[in-house]
Design a protein that fits this description.
By secondary structure, the protein is α/β, with parallel strands linked by helices. The protein contains 5 helices and 4 strands. It has a 4-stranded parallel beta sheet with strand order 2-1-3-4, with helices on both faces. Helix 1 crosses helix 5 and helix 2 crosses helix 5.
Length: 153
């Protein structure tokens, strides 16, 4: 029996790391029955994916041309949703701001049992976005294994 019905990646603005992780996990065929999306902690208005992040995704045969950043809200939390932040500081802020609603909140590294925070490449060159994508790819590959193992138990 599957543990979660939905998985939400959370980053600062929902324009780079979280959408990249979302696209990577959506490409995993074993998770067809899990809704995967992303949210931002500070989204003042809907905006598309960062152009450098989009370029890196397209080079890796992934694209999210219709993605629009969405603000994390209290309604995003429930018992059957796994919330994965990119950084420990973001996780702590979520737990503080949504203390009454926050459930199943982890960093992606923590949940996968590997690595450390996924640092933002914003303001850096395209190579930094490529490095961020590779880190996320490794983590999402491991995440898919963890979720599959959980569903089998």
């Amino acid at each position: 029996m599957k543990k979660y019905d939905k998985l939400t990646f959370i980053s600062r603005s929902d324009t780079c790391r979280a959408p990249m992780a979302e696209a990577l996990l959506q490409a995993k065929f074993l998770l067809e029955d899990v809704i995967v999306d992303s949210r931002g902690m500070i989204v003042l208005f809907p905006e598309p994916i960062n152009p450098k992040a989009q370029e890196v995704m397209e080079k890796n045969q992934l694209a999210m041309p219709d993605h629009q950043a969405e603000q994390l809200t209290r309604d995003d939390f429930d018992e059957r949703t796994l919330m994965l932040a990119m950084e420990q500081a973001q996780k702590e802020k979520i737990l503080e701001d949504y203390a009454d609603e926050a459930k199943n909140v982890y960093t992606i590294a923590e949940y996968c049992g590997q690595g450390k925070d996924v640092e933002s490449p914003l303001g850096k060159d395209i190579a930094a976005y490529g490095e961020c994508f590779q880190i996320l790819k490794e983590m999402v590959d491991r995440l898919a294994e963890v979720i599959k193992e959980e569903d089998e138990t």
